[in-house]
Amino acid sequence: VKKIRDGQLLQDTVESGSERELTARFAALVKMPTESFQKVFIDVSKKKESDPSVIDLGLIEQEEGSIQDFDGVKLEPKKDDMVKAYINAKPGSELNLSQEEIDIFNSLNNTEQVEHQFRSMLLNRYRKFRQHGLKGIPPYRRGGGVDYHPHEELARKADLAKIIKREAPEFHRHLSEYPKNKPEGLEESFSWINFEVDGKPTISLVHRMGRLEGDVYVFAERHYYVGRSHNCVHGIGGAFPVDEGTVLLYLVRTTTDQVAGFGSSAKRAIGSRIMGGQMAANFERARA
Fold first, then answer.
1. How far apart are CA 118 and CA 104, in angstroms?
2. Is the pTM value of this prediction over 0.90?
3. CA neighbor of 67 nearest in space, from 113, 120, 129, 111
4. 172: part of which helix (H) or strand (E)?
5. Residue numbers of the chain with a pLDDT score lower than 70
6. Running DSSP on this structure, what letter comes out for residue 143?
7. What are the distances in angstroms from CA 247 to CA 6, 7, 26, 188, 276?
């Protein structure tokens, strides 16, 4: 606790929940009241200021959403390469698409059509998540006709949050059963974010939610759709008021096919260190 109050950012990992999972855990002091952190967390637009990998982002403010909410979505950088990849999409881990989405992209033949369809796909996935929660998330078609189900992975990650489940049961129940059982006082935001990963656009649909439990602010962030590179992200934490400001405890679990298979343990360890280092740098920029 003294190290945190002295300004050190503490970072480590926890045991992975599967051969595809990277983890990173943080504890740090931010010199702002907990009430101010709540606003910063829910207002995802601040993320662009602390994360250099963010190319662009947009809020989705109405429950139904509209295609206009995604006007800013562009398959950049490397637009030409990405358009070709979507037109020639096939089952596998290069792109995260359902079989129905693959078939639609295969029928297109120019940039305008592909970007419009990509925005329409994001809107459709957003609406399904708002209406049906995790179980509404369409699967990703992998090779051999096998489907990968992000909803199963995200549900498992939520179930691993044992401390939240014990200390904030109403929040955890809503997290697990969203959109059912929304507790009083819960706030949330929805957005899309375009990250540059490996020099290519990686567009995610993001849900943030938080609630005061006594004087502790409990919060979670889920990337319930990710266009490429990895499959889904689940982060959960608590903000604790102290005299110096707010102590944040945060755990993130990211699932990616890139670390599965032979040598999975070593690849997860390396991947977790890299991910943790990048997040730690973002954390330092955010609290500067």
1. 10
2. yes
3. 120
4. helix 169-177
5. 262, 288
6. G
7. 11, 10, 10, 21, 18
